[in-house]
């Protein structure tokens, strides 16, 4: 039995660490769900006028409303689940005293947007998407096609403030465009899966410890 004491203690120590890691992930899950609930509440809040100098951190997801005229912008490659590939239509919204970017929504590959109305009223959320990485191609300027909503670069290209409104509703609406509003669904929340992994490893660790102790005891009988 003495030969089994150290393997048993080591097994219990390892299982304890794995269980602690699983419990920590459950605590992180509770924290993340509270954060997501706060973000969802902010996204769906009462819209206000676009701030004069919005902050990309403090004003992310801020609900806003604006009125202005549309000017041609760019297409950004995108996809929608169960629909497939298409484009986000990112145009310029001229509000009179300033120009901002407006993500009008999703356009299927086979469709063409209708004529731009003289004036629109949009309700949406400010957003500064983090969609650019080392694998993002440079925009195809010849075909007016972009591969990410790079707000700073789009603003410089189209001559607007570095501000993007992602539309929830536009009046009058273009029946061909489907609004693609921001939500919290794209924010990673994998803590439940991590917790299950750590707890499962703890069960396996305890099982292997029990098997080792059993074999040691059997060998000394």
Automatic annotation (TrEMBL):
Family: Belongs to the SURF1 family.
Residue intervals passing through the bilayer: 5-23, 196-214
Lineage: Bacteria, Pseudomonadati, Pseudomonadota, Alphaproteobacteria, Rhodobacterales
Cited Pfam families: SURF1
Source organism: Actibacterium atlanticum
Keywords on record: Cell membrane, Membrane, Transmembrane, Transmembrane helix
InterPro entries per record: Surf1/Shy1, Surf1/Surf4
Organism domain of life: Bacteria
Keyword Transmembrane helix: yes
A cellular component annotation (GO) from this entry: plasma membrane
Descriptive protein name: SURF1-like protein
């Amino acid at each position: 039995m003495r030969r089994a004491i150290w393997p048993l203690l080591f097994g219990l120590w390892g299982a304890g660490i794995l269980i602690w890691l699983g419990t920590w992930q459950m605590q992180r899950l509770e924290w993340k769900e509270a954060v997501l609930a706060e973000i969802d509440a902010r996204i769906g809040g009462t819209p206000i006028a676009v701030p004069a100098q919005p902050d990309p951190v403090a004003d992310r997801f801020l609900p806003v409303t604006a009125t202005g005229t549309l000017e041609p912008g760019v297409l950004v490659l995108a996809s929608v689940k169960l629909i497939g590939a298409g484009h986000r239509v990112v145009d310029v919204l001229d509000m009179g005293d300033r120009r901002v970017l407006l993500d009008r929504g999703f356009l299927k590959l086979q469709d063409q947007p209708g004529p731009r109305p003289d004036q629109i009223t949009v309700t949406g959320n400010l957003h500064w998407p983090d969609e650019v990485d080392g694998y993002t191609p440079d925009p195809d300027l010849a075909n007016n096609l972009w591969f990410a909503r790079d707000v700073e670069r789009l603003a410089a290209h189209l001559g607007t403030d570095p501000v993007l409104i992602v539309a929830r509703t536009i009046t009058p609406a273009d029946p061909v465009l489907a609004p693609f509003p921001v939500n919290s669904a794209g924010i990673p929340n994998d803590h439940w899966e991590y917790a299950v992994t750590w707890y499962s490893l703890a069960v396996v660790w305890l099982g292997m410890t029990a098997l080792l102790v059993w074999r040691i005891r059997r060998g000394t009988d």
